[in-house]
Amino acid sequence: MKHTGRVAGTAPDGGSARQQELLEAAYAWVLERGWAGMSLRPLAEAIGSSPRVLLFLFGSKDGLVRALLARSRADQLAVLDAVGDSGDLATVGARVWAWLAAPEHRALLRLWLEAYTRSVGDAGDGPWAGFAARTVADWDALLARHQPPAHRDTAAGVAERALLLAVLRGALLDLLATGETARLDAAVGAHLAAL
């Protein structure tokens, strides 16, 4: 048996095994239903818990939302890892678009969009604050790794990444709204060909 270096009954990040189990169940629930109208009572009932247990484990509803956002971000960061470190900016842009356009990722991307929108409107220290900015920074860092080092930090390099990210995000928004994959594949392809 492999030794994990953690106490039995705890999750890898230090939370209890029960906390991780409920977090995964809650994450599956919000993936299916979205953030809108998330209330502790129906969520707790759906995942086999109670509002009191969720409040105990996560500290507050905001604490649960922060944990769910972190869980969602972990899925997004896994995408960044899957894209890999080889290829130029156009090649990586094509890989990212292929992932974004895949039908099996729609639930995660709808959840991301809702969280992103809420974050833009949360200028304070609420659970959504900073989520959108962290997302932009994550994707910008990925794209920067695929630019020549001498170009990466120039004004032109920064603008090139910002434009590619804007094209990908805009195409994703339209795809989620319309489902018109062929039209958006062509639009993204045209931009990538110009890089």
TrEMBL record:
Organism encoding this protein: Actinomycetospora cinnamomea
GO molecular function: DNA binding
Keywords, ordered alphabetically: DNA-binding
This protein's name: TetR family transcriptional regulator
PROSITE patterns found in the cross-reference section: HTH_TETR_2
InterPro entries xrefs: Homeodomain-like_sf, HTH_TetR
DNA-binding region: 39-58
Pfam families in alphabetical order: TetR_N
SUPFAM superfamilies referenced in this protein's UniProt entry, alphabetically: Homeodomain-like (SSF46689)
Domain of life: Bacteria
Domain HTH tetR-type: 16-76
